[in-house]
């Protein structure tokens, strides 16, 4: 039955799209929305999406909002346009707007070193410490790599994370390269608090959410759980759909990714972005400082445009800027707990689109496909088969991943034993910013407890181990000192590099 529905949906999309593109025919809004509904359902089936919610604004007013699928599969609860979804890093545009409002109030100069506002701001790199501005921390050009495990799954608080940044090494010099960084947006949140005298949450609620009438939008998980209409996130384990949970600790770095919103509220956010900072006749942020948010600052690395329809990307403050089929486009996506979101604004076409889902199974492929499909329709362009393109990317990525794994395994020295009895590896190892790694001996080898989560370590060869589950991709080296003892772990984290944990 499901297969028949999918075939029907695909057939309907094909017929509707062809009909809408006949020479001389101008599609009506009903044509467009019928086509969109059928296409969304077909893509949800193909990419295994439990729920999605979409909103579109066009020509200065709401155009369309809808929700599809199940926000909670175990309870068989359908998603609605009021269902809250964590929108993760789409939050960054809210933080950039907050600082823009503070600039409007004369409390912030975009180009003034933030050290002058926060004397206790300190990075490992002294030059960066004394030079970095608000513009720099919002445009990912500080030289600091992601270091996300400082906060991810941890119980650290905002100020603690802020104060411990001095222990995190840069991987590039200041301004050398775009490096996406959540911790710098945490710094931006602290800056909002210091300049306003209010928490980031209070300031955003008072200056942005209330004036924009985003009445359902919340900034913490406890607030979201207090609303019965929120989406549960999902992942695949052993070919089964299971809940992904809410243990990321994203609320601690709220300014980087803690907004939870819905289709109806995001409509108002998109309208404000397209109306030069105004909503219902009220200026939320000045046109001047909203333009500062939207002005390219840093070229996104790596500089690539995979398809001829796409231009190179640059980053402003809380927004990516690029070109889609000759049309200027601003975007940001978000990922947390399995949720994936994408917001898009075409400033010269007066068009805004927001798409969110409650699974990471399709990564950003589904939200990109839906966004591009809507863009093609409402910009009156021929449809591009983005679905086939992204399916090919997924298959190519799987092939490359298998190839890299084979190459990686080929470097393994089979039979190369550990240099010490296994008991010698156990202990507590600490880093001042990353916290404690607890290593235990088990019947199966070594087990690590980190940030209230635990998993087995896989012995690779000699004193090298590999992480699993939430630590997949992290490697652990137990070097021996001059006395023949193991006194540290050198862990290599993706997008962070080597981090040294000293044995207590």
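-> sequence recovered:
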């Amino acid at each position: 039955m499901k297969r028949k529905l999918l075939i029907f949906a695909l057939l309907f999309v094909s017929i509707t799209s062809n009909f809408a593109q006949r020479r001389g025919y101008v599609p009506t809004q009903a044509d467009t929305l019928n086509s969109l509904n059928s296409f969304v359902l077909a893509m949800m089936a193909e990419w295994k999406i439990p729920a999605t919610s979409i909103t579109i604004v066009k020509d200065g007013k709401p155009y369309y909002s809808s929700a599809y699928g199940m926000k909670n599969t175990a309870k068989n609860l359908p998603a609605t346009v009021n269902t809250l979804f964590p929108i993760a890093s789409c939050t960054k545009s809210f933080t950039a707007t907050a600082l823009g409002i503070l600039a409007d109030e004369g409390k912030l100069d975009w180009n003034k070193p933030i050290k002058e506002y926060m004397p206790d701001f300190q990075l490992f790199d002294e030059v960066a410490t004394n030079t970095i501005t608000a513009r720099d921390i919002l445009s990912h050009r500080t030289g600091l790599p992601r270091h996300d495990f400082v906060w991810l799954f941890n119980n650290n608080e905002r100020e603690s994370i802020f104060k411990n940044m001095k222990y995190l090494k840069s991987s590039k010099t200041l301004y050398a390269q775009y490096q996406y960084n959540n911790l710098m947006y945490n710094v931006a949140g602290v800056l909002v608090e210091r300049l306003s005298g209010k928490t980031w949450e209070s300031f955003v609620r008072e200056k942005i959410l209330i004036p924009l009438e985003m009445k359902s939008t919340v900034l913490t998980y406890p607030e979201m759980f207090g609303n019965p209409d929120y989406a549960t996130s999902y992942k695949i384990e052993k070919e089964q759909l299971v809940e992904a949970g809410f243990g990321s600790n994203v609320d601690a770095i709220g300014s980087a990714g803690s907004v939870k919103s819905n289709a109806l509220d995001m409509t108002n956010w998109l309208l404000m972005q397209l109306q030069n900072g105004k909503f219902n006749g009220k200026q939320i942020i000045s046109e001047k400082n909203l333009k500062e948010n939207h002005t390219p600052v840093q070229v996104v690395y790596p500089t690539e445009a995979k398809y001829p329809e796409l231009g190179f990307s640059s980053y402003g403050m809380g927004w990516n800027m690029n070109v889609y089929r000759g049309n200027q486009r601003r975007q940001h996506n978000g990922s947390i707990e399995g949720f994936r979101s994408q917001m898009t604004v075409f400033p010269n076409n007066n068009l805004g689109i927001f798409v969110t889902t409650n699974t990471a199974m399709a990564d950003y492929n589904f939200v990109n496909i839906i966004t591009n499909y809507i863009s093609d329709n409402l910009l009156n362009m021929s449809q591009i088969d983005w679905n086939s393109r992204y399916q090919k990317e997924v298959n190519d990525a799987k092939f490359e991943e298998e190839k890299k794994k084979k190459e990686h395994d080929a470097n393994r020295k089979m039979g190369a034993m550990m240099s010490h009895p296994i008991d010698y590896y156990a202990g507590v190892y600490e880093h001042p910013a990353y916290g404690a790694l607890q290593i235990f001996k088990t019947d199966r080898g070594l087990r690590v407890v980190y940030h209230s989560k635990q998993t087995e370590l896989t012995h690779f060869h000699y004193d090298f181990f590999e992480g699993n589950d939430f630590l997949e991709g992290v490697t652990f080296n137990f070097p021996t000192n001059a006395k023949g003892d193991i006194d540290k772990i050198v862990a290599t984290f993706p997008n962070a590099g080597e981090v040294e944990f000293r044995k207590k």
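The longest helix spans residues 386-410.
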